[in-house]
Amino acid sequence: MRDGDAGEPVLRVEGVETHYDATDGFLDRLLGRSRRVRAVDGVDFELREGETLGVVGESGCGKTTLARSVLRLVEPTAGSVYHRGEDLTALSSAALRDRRKDLQYVFQDPLSSLDPRLTAGDVVGEPLDVHGLATGAERDARVRELLETVGLKPSHAARYPHEFSGGQRQRLGIARALAVDPEVIVCDEPVSALDASVQAQILNLLADLQAEFGLAYVVIAHDLRVIEHVSDRVAVMYLGEFVERGPTEAVFDPPYHPYTEALLSAIPEPDPLWEGDGIRLEGTVPSPVDPPSGCRFHTRCPRLVPAAEYDLPGEVWRSLTDLKLRAMEADGVASLTAVSPSGEAGGSPAGDDAVDPLDPTSPTDPTSPDDSISPDDPTDSTSPADSTGPADPTEVPRGTFDVLVREEFGLPEPLPDADAEAAVGDAIDALHDDRIEEAAELLDAVFVSPCERHHPTEYQVGTDHGIACLRYDDGFDEEIGTFADGAEPTGSEPTGSAE
Ligand code: SF4
C-alpha cells in the first residue's frame, strides 16, 4: 500500500531501548568496570496496516537489534511494543508464542536460519504444527500451496535446504513466515546475501505477497536502493537512534539529515564515469558502549555546525574537530601523523611540493627554518643513516611537523581566524613536545561545536517528516552557517561531557 496515511497502526513502538552487558574479561571485573552496549536507544515508530517501513543504516547502527527487540527475539531493556493495542513486552512466554502467529521474522541468511535436517516441507509445516493450524492431508496441502505461493514447486517439499539456491532458500524462509497467516513480517536484510538479479525477484515477491495478503513489513537494510524500492516510509538509523524518518519520497528529496545525505551520495550510479556527489563519510559507526556526546553523528558529520566565536568555514571546523578527536584518542603522536624514512607518510605532502620530513634542509619547510637540524648534528635522530623504520614524528623539526599535521587533517596555514590559528599553533607545539593530553585538552577547551553539546530532537520539516539535526532548529542561521553568537538551540537539550 502506497498511501502511508491510511490504516490503523498494527504495531506501535514506544521508547524501545535494548542495552546489554558487554563487561568482558578479568580486567573489567578487577576494576569493577561495567560496559553497557546501548544498541537501541529510545526508538519510536508506528507501522500501519499493509504498509512497509524501511529501516536503513550502516552495519553496527543497531537496526537488527531493533528488529529482534520488536518481536522480543531479544528482550528490550525499556519501552513498549504494542500489537493491536496490546503490549508485547508485558506478555508471558506462552502468550507471546501465541502472538507470534501474527508477527513473523525473515532472516538475513536463509541457510543458517533453516534447520538442515528438515525437508522444505517440514520447514514450512513446522509453524503449522506449533500453532496447531493443520494436520495430515490438510497440512500437506497447505505446505504445497505455500511453496507455490512463493514461486517454488510442490515437489520441492522433499528437498533439504542445502539443495536449494540462495534465492530459493529465501523463498522458503518467506513461505515459513507466511504459513501462520501473519499481519506483520519483519524482514532483516532479506536480499543482502543474494545476487542482484535474485534480489529483484525476492523484492517483487514480497511486494506481490503484500498486495495479495495485506501484509505490513518492517524491512531492515543497509542498502538505500532496496529501501527506496520497497518502502512507504523510511527511518534512517544511526548508533541506536532514528535520525530521520518520513515518507519515502520526502526522505529521498532534500532537505536531508546530513547522515542520510551522505548515504544517498554513496549510492553508485549506473554511469561508470559517475563518481558520487563527493560526500565521503569517514570512519565507521562509533562504539555503542560510549556514544559521542550531543549529536551522536558529530564525530563524522560532514556538516558539523561551527561555533560562532570563530570565523571559520564548516570544512575547517570539521578538520579541527577531527584533529581534536584524534588527539583525545591517540596513544602516541605517531597515530596522528606518521613519518616514514622515505618521507612518505600518512598525510605527508606529495608531488612537487612534497616535504621530506627527514630532510632537515627541506625547502618546503617554510614555517620554521631555524628548526633545521644539521645532518652532522648527533642529536638528529631523523638522519636517514639510522632510519630503519617509521620515524618518531616528534623528532622532525617543529616546522615540518606543523606541515605534516596540517596535511593530515586538511588544515590551511594559517587558519582564516587569528585566534583559532593561535590555539592550533599552541596545540601543535604541545603535540610536537609529545604532550598529547595537553594538546587534546587545549583543543577541547577552544573548539566545541554546538553539535557536541546538544542532543538534537526531531524537528518537523514536512508532513510526517522529521529530522534530528540542529541545522533544523529555529535558532540556526543559514546565512552565517551556525547559531548567532550567544544563541543556543531551542529545541534540544544540552547533553554530554561538554555540557
Ligand atoms: S546536529 Fe550537527 S553533527 Fe548532528 S547531524 Fe546535524 S549538523 Fe551534523
Can you offer a commentary on this structure?
With 499 residues, the chain is α/β, with parallel strands linked by helices. Among the domains are: 9-102 and 182-265, Rossmann fold (3-Layer(aba) Sandwich), CATH 3.40.50.300; 306-448, no CATH class. The protein has helices spanning 25-30, 63-70, 93-99, 110-113, 120-130, 136-149, 166-178, 196-213, 224-230, 248-251, 258-265, 314-329, 398-409, 418-432, 436-446, 450-453; strands at 9-21, 36-48, 52-56, 78-83, 86-87, 103-106, 184-188, 216-221, 233-238, 241-247, 454-455, 459-462, 465-467, 476-477, 482-483, 493-494. The strands form 4 sheets. An 8-stranded mixed sheet has the order 6-7-8-3-9-10-13-12, sandwiched between helices. A 4-stranded antiparallel sheet has the order 2-1-4-5. α12 (314-329) packs antiparallel against α15, α13 (398-409) packs across α14 and α14 (418-432) packs antiparallel against α15. The model is unreliable at 1-5 and 343-387 (pLDDT under 50). It binds iron/sulfur cluster. Iron/sulfur cluster (SF4) binds at residues 257-258, 295, 297-298, 301, 303-305, 451, 456, 469-471.
Overall CATH architecture of the domain at 9-102 and 182-265? 3-Layer(aba) Sandwich
Shape: elongated
CATH topology of the domain at 9-102 and 182-265: Rossmann fold
The order of strands across the largest sheet is 6-7-8-3-9-10-13-12
Radius of gyration: 28 Å
- Find the count of extended strands (DSSP E, 2+ residues): 16
Q: Regions with pLDDT < 50 over 5+ consecutive residues?
A: 1-5, 343-387
Which molecules other than protein and nucleic acid are bound?
iron/sulfur cluster
The proportion of residues in beta strands is: 15-25%
CATH class category of the domain at 9-102 and 182-265: Alpha Beta
The CATH superfamily of the domain at 9-102 and 182-265 appears as P-loop containing nucleotide triphosphate hydrolases
The N- and C-terminal alpha carbons lie at a distance of 45 Å
- Roughly what is the average pLDDT, rounded to an integer? 85
Number of helices: 16
Largest sheet: 8 strands, mixed
Fraction of residues in helices?
A: 25-40%
User: What structural class is derived from the secondary structure elements?
Assistant: alpha/beta
Pfam families: ABC_tran (PF00005), oligo_HPY (PF08352)
Keywords: ATP-binding, Nucleotide-binding, Transport
Protein name: Peptide ABC transporter ATP-binding protein
Region (Disordered): 338-397
